[in-house]
Amino acid sequence: MLGTAQRNSLVTIKNEWADILAQFDVAGRALLTTATPVAASQVAVVLAFDYPALLEQVLQNTVLQTQLKAVLNKHALSNELVMISQDEWHLDRTEYVEKLKTGAAPQIDLATLPYVKVAKATQSNNAQQNAEHESIKTDEPQIVSEAKKLFGDDLVNIVD
């Protein structure tokens, strides 16, 4: 991906990122606000997330991924996504720059990236989890369930 990254593609997506986020509901926007476009090309967009836990939630949320791809497509941007943590991004970028300095420009196939495989693998798991989740009905308000989904049961404290 880094071998095909283009500055103008990155500038374009960064300029349109606020408009892209505005097209999501509050929960989706909250998750994607922690992401920053760090590389882009005609092939893919790399989003680096500040918090690995939120990255994991986005990787498991196929509905959000599909919606993000549709929005990127609507903005005439690449709709292939590579989602990683900021830490992974810094490590991958440093490794890539070091290889360039030694004269070895690595060609990276998107299908071999572990975070893309995680996104694909979780799609089938996510469908199964959604079916199980829908079968379990709770009496809690929607805002509480959204908060638990975003931040986890252990962090959400409900005060009546």
How would you describe the overall organization of this protein?
The protein has 160 residues and is mostly helical. The protein is 58% helix and 10% strand. The chain has helices at 7-21, 26-33, 52-60, 62-74, 86-101, 114-135, 142-151, and strands spanning 35-40, 45-49, 81-85. Strands 1-2-3 form a three-stranded mixed beta sheet. A hairpin with a 4-residue loop joins β1 (35-40) and β2. It starts with 6 loop residues before the first helix and ends in a 9-residue tail after the last helix. Mean pLDDT is 75; it is low at 117-125 and 131-137.
Summed up, what is this model?
With 160 residues, the protein is mainly α. The protein has helices at residues 7-21, 26-33, 52-60, 62-74, 86-101, 114-135, 142-151; strands at 35-40, 45-49, 81-85.
Strand order, sheet with most strands:
1-2-3
Helix content: 55-70%
List low-pLDDT spans.
117-125, 131-137
**Overall morphology:** globular
What are its keywords?
about 160 residues, globular, 7 helices, mainly alpha, 3-stranded mixed β-sheet
